[in-house]
Amino acid sequence: AAKAGGGAQARWFRNAMQSQAEDRLQLEGLLREALERNQFSLVFQPQLHLATGRIQHMEALLRWQCPALGPVSPAAFVPVAEDIGLIVPIGEWVMREACREVGRLRRLLALKGGRPPRVAVNVSAHQLLSPGLVEMVQSALADAGLGPEHLEIEITESIFLQDADRALATLESLRQLGIELAIDDFGTGYSSFSYLTQFPFDRLKIDRSLVMNVDQPGKGYAIVAAIVSLAHALGMKVTAEGMETPAQAEQLEALQCDDIQGYGFHRPLQPKVLERLLLGAPPL
Ligand code: C2E
Ligand code: MG
Ligand code: MG
Ligand code: MG
C-alpha cells in the first residue's frame, strides 16, 4: 500500500527528482562561469540560394565547450540561460561575435570583389524584451563597421506569448533600422497564422520536422507546398531548414523555396572552414 513517503517506488522517484534538481543546479553554475571563461564559440551554417546557386545567408549557431560536461547542445542550455536571465549577456556576446566575424569576412572577400553572406542571429524571447536590445544591436553593427544589410534576426513565435505588444514594437524598431527579420521553426509549437498578418516578417523558416517529409508523397509535400505559397503570397522569402537528402532538395526547388539550409548542403562550419569555402579555396 502506498503510505505517504513510503515504498521503494516513491523513494526511487524522490531520488530521481533530487538528482534532476542537482543536475540543473550544476548546469546553472557552470553556465554562469562560461562567458568570462571564454567557453563559447560560434559556428556558421551556410544556406544555398536556389535561384543563383550562391550562399547569400548563413546562420550563426552557439557552441559551448564545458570543461566539466564536454560540449553541451544549445537546445539543452539556451532554455536554462533563458530561465535565469543569462541569455541577455550571452546573446549580446553572440551578436557582437557574429558581427565581428562578418566584418572580418567582409574585409577578406573585398580583396576578391566579393561580399559575405548575410548573417542570421537567433534572438530569444527574453532577450528581445530586454531593455536596450535595439541599441545593443546597433552598437554591435557599428563596432564591426557593418551596415544593417549584413544582419538578419531569427525569432520564434513563443515570443508573442509573453508580451506581444512590446515584442512587436521592438521588432518594428529593428526593421526600421534595415535589419531583416525571420520567423524561425515555422510549423511547430505555437505556429499561428495571425502573427504572420500582424507583423511583416521578411522571411519564414520552415521547421525541419516538416522539411524531412517533403519528399514523401501526399501530406508531407502538400504541407510544405502550402506554407511556401502562403509565405510568398504575404511577401516573405522562404528558407527550408534541415534538408538532408538530394530528394528533399529536388522537391524544395520544385516548390520554389528561396533558400535551403541543412546537412545535405553544409553542416554548421568553424569560421576558418567557412572562410575557405567563401574564398573558393580547397577544403582543409
Ligand atoms: P534553430 O535556430 O532552429 O537552428 C537550427 C538547428 O538545426 C541547429 O541546431 C542546426 O545545427 C540544426 N540543423 C541544421 N541542419 C540540420 C539537418 O540537416 N539535420 C539536423 N538534424 N539538424 C540540422 P543547433 O546548433 O544544435 O541549435 C539548436 C537550437 O538552439 C537552435 O535552433 C536555436 O533555437 C538555439 N540556438 C542556437 N544558437 C543560439 C543562439 O546564439 N541564441 C539563441 N537564443 N538560441 C540559439
Ligand atoms: Mg534559427
Ligand atoms: Mg529553426
Ligand atoms: Mg529549431
Automatic annotation (TrEMBL):
One of its GO terms (molecular function) is cyclic-guanylate-specific phosphodiesterase activity. Residues 24-282 form the EAL domain. This is Phosphodiesterase. It comes from Variovorax guangxiensis.
